[in-house]
Amino acid sequence: MLKDACGVCKEFCEAEAIDYEQKEKEIELNVGAVILSPGFEIFNAKIKEELGYGNYPNVITSLEFERILSASGPYLGKVLRPSDETEPKRIGFIQCVGSRETDRDYCSSVCCMYATKEAIIAKEHAGEDLKCDVFFMDMRAFSKGFDEYYQRAKEVGVDYIRCRPASVKEIPETKNLLIEYLAEDDKKVSREYDLVVLAVGLQPPKSVKEISEKFGIELNEFNFCKTSPFKPVESTREGIYVSGPFTEPKDIPETIMQASGASSKVLSLLKDVKGSLIVSKEYPPEIDVEGQEPRIGVFVCHCGTNIAGVVNVPSVVEYAKTLPNVVYADNNLYTCSNDTQELIKEKIKE
C-alpha cells in the first residue's frame, strides 16, 4: 500500500484532477446576488450526560442508527447493537434531544418523522417481533402524507409514549439500558431496552457567526438566519438570499422548495439576459439498427437488502436469460451506482 507523499494518486487519476503544486488563492467575483445555504449541525448528544451517550455503547444517535440500517453500513443492513453485535429485541427512541429546552427552545422539525421511519425500517429488517417504543413530547407529523405514515407505524406495532425521559442507565451485566420517565399519570416508570436511539436535533452551523459578519446579515434569537414570514428566502440584506435549515430546521423536500424559491428570486434579476448563455446540447450519433434482431439487456438490482431481501435476484437473472431476444442478463449490488452505469454503457456499445 503506497502512502504519504509518493505521488501515486496523480498517476492513477484518469481525470488529471490532482495538482500537488497548486497553491491557495483568493478569487474575487463581482455578482449581483448571493444564495447562502450552509446547512446545519446536529446536536452533540454527549452534552446530555444523563442519557449516557459516549458512556454506554448501546446508546447511539439517530444518525448512527441510520447507518446501521443501511445496506452499506457497518452490519450490512442487519439491525445489531454495537456492544456485542447481537440483534436487539427492544429499541427505545428518545425524541427532542437538544431541542425544545431552555438553551434551544425550538422544534427541530424532522425528528418525529425520521424516528418513525427508522422504527418502521428496523421492524422490516429485524422482523415483527422487534419492539420499538418512541418517547415523545408532541407528534409533529405536519407535511403531506406524514400523519398517514405515523398511523401506519402504530399499525405495525410501533408504540408511542408521551413523556420526556429523565435518564438512561446501563445494566452492567447485560449492557442493556433502563429508561426512566414520568408517565402521563405522574407515576415513575422504567423500561429495559437492548438499544437506545437518541433523536438529535438540528442547530445552526458552527460558522454561523462568521457568515453573519462576513455577509452583513442578521441572525434570530436561535442563531439561524433572520427572515420574515412573507419573505422566507430573503435575508436582512438586499441581494442576499437564503435557503434550507440555515433559516430554521426543515426536511429535504421543504429545503428543495425553498432553494427553488431563492433561485427564482435571483433569476428574476437576470431577466434582461435570459437565454444569452444557452448552449445547444450535443448528443452522440444513434446507431442504425434497422433490420437487426432486437437485442435486450437485463440488469437486475439487489439494492442492498431492499430488493434482494424479498426477491431471489440470481433466479430472476437466470429466468431473464431464457426470454426471447435477451442477449445479456446480470445482477448488480446497486444499479444506480456510477460503476454499474458505466458497465451498462459498455454492454450497450458491445
Number of DSSP helical runs: 8
Shape: globular
- Low-confidence stretches are none
Mind telling me the CATH class of the largest domain?
Alpha Beta
Overall structural domain count: 3
Element order, helices and strands?
A: HEEEHEHEHEEEEEEHEHEHEH
- Distance linking N and C termini: 35 Å
What would you say the CATH architecture of the largest domain is?
Answer: 3-Layer(bba) Sandwich
- Binned, the helix content reads 10-25%
> Mean pLDDT across all residues, rounded?
91
Q: State the major sheet.
A: 5 strands, parallel
- Strands ordered across the widest β-sheet: 3-10-4-5-6
Secondary-structure class: alpha/beta
Radius of gyration: 26 Å
Which strand-content bin applies to the residues? Answer: 15-25%
Q: State the CATH superfamily name of the largest domain.
A: FAD/NAD(P)-binding domain
Tally the beta strands: 14
Q: CATH topology of the largest domain, what is it called?
A: FAD/NAD(P)-binding domain
